[in-house]
Amino acid sequence: MPSATTHSGAEVVVVGDTVTKLHHPRTDAALLAERLAVVARGAEAAAVWVQPLHDVPARAADGRLTSAWPRVEVLAPDDGEQPWAEAGRLLADLHGWSVPVTATDRPGSLPLPDHGWPARLARARARIGRSGGGAAAVLLRGLGDRLLDELALGPAAPVGQAPRTVVHGDFHLGNLARTGAGLRLLDPDDLGLGDPAWDLARPAGYWAAGLLADEDWDRFLGAYADAGGRAVTPGEDPWPRLDLPARCAVFVAAVRAVAGPEGGAEDDPGRGAAQPAHSALPADALVAACSRM
Q1: How far apart are CA 155 and CA 214, in angstroms?
Q2: pLDDT tens sequence across 21-53
Q3: What is the distance between the alpha carbons of residues 103 and 112, in angstroms, rounded to a whole number?
Q4: CATH number at residue 272
């Protein structure tokens, strides 16, 4: 049966029209259940997310949590012209959701957690700390420390001005699927609450580093803003809000290129190396971008 390992260390197994995701061993069962409940909670969610086949995770024989999904056409790096404008509008729709205090109304429902970017940044810094002592690793360790310090200081926007919305937490084109109803989001593993600027981190960072074409960035940001995306304010320079998330995204991508993605042998001995992320970019270009930060 076809299978693949994602950049975050999860395993995806395809059987017929069903995709089973074996989540990373660190996945919290209660929080995964809440996240699945959010993406399966009605028409608003169905207009944005690929719908899970079950809204409660199960357990595999090895103890890992699993979720089941319909087989869909996932965007690939070589798809030709990528749907940047449609992706921007979809993300704006997500950020326009009313923020739930809890994921569901059922008794015992947990609050939706904060999104996954801060934890991803910390894991990337730890991973590069375990790697060898080459020049790129030394540079990235120093940059990772500075980014963690900046993140600890809080958002760039003045207190009270940064919106708090539902955030995908791991937005990139590889977490989008083409369906008969249009483009939809995949992978709610890092879904949470926070500043929506973090969902613009990868495209913003790659554009600032010269790794995403101006026209693609303009299509994405323009469509997002026109659809009312809350990470930007009409008439204002978006970069003060996007700068830190963008730099963090480039750093994490550089760590994956230099030290390998999460879920490889370094992070879990006995398992094979993970496949690269959708937006895999040359290590030298990413490290060069980090050296300019």
Answers
A1: 26
A2: 999 998 999 999 989 988 998 888 999 999 999
A3: 6
A4: 3.90.1200.10
